[in-house]
Fold this sequence. Notes:
Layout: E1 15-18, E2 21-24, E3 27-29, E4 35-37, E5 40-43, E6 49-51, H1 59-69, E7 77-79, H2 85-88, H3 91-97, E8 102-105, H4 107-113, E9 125-127, E10 133-135, E11 140-144, E12 156-159, E13 164-166, H5 186-200, H6 209-220, E14 226-228, H7 237-250, H8 261-272
Parallel strand pairs: 6-7, 7-8, 8-9, 13-14
Antiparallel strand pairs: 1-2, 2-5, 3-4, 5-6, 10-11, 11-12, 12-13
Amino acid sequence: MTVTPHPAAPAASPELIAPDTWLIPHLVPAGEGLLLPVNSMVIRGREPVIVDTGAPAHRASWLDKAFSVVEPEDVRWIFLSHDDGDHTGALFDVLERCPQATLVTNWFSVERLALEKPALPLHRMRWIEPGGSFDAGDRVLQLFRPPVFDGPTSRGLFDPKSGAMWIVDSFACLTPGSLDARELPAELLANCMPALNSAVSPWHAWLDPQVYGRHVDAVEGYGARTVASAHGPVLRGETLDDAFDRLRQMAGASIIPTPGQGLLDQMLVAVMGEGVAA
């Protein structure tokens, strides 16, 4: 793999991906003319919902984008899918700017965040586990455990009214720029998505295919028409069907190796010049 300097990531604006449902995207250079999506979401219904709060590196632009879609004082719910930093970057800002909002999370997320964010307001929380739900006025949003995750606190979110699903870190995939999976090269989806799924959840190698298959079936069985994730393009139609099929194939399959020292050496040379990584 050859690493070449990448131009600045293009700006990505909020995008309506389903009724009342906006993707809040950022794109990060990932080499070879590719970009890593770093997404979150806003559901703008009767009781608006912010779904994750972006990465710390994007805090200012995330706030601008999210609050171009919904007024802070209108937000009634903040759904935190899990406690990883790239999902909690603007959490305190959102809590401050959205005084009417309730934070939907779980006990373990709060415990894991305690050393980093000890001032989380317990009186503004709802702790909901997979299989639970909450009423956002004109829709009841359902929580589930996603089929791929890198942390035990991860919870996905499904909106039966719009047919939109937030599947957290599942279905990660680099992109040349588009956030619509139907516009991506088939080869990229076929190779990159399994590799990133494997990197996020290397425990797939020890899964029983039948047991895991039933879990994937259950998530697919929600009937989502639009699936957004934190680090991949938006999936619909055949691209969504193919993505679920790739998940089933992960059970018991060998872990796909991630880049190692060789890539780091190339990156150092690209940034600092020949001889640096020798």
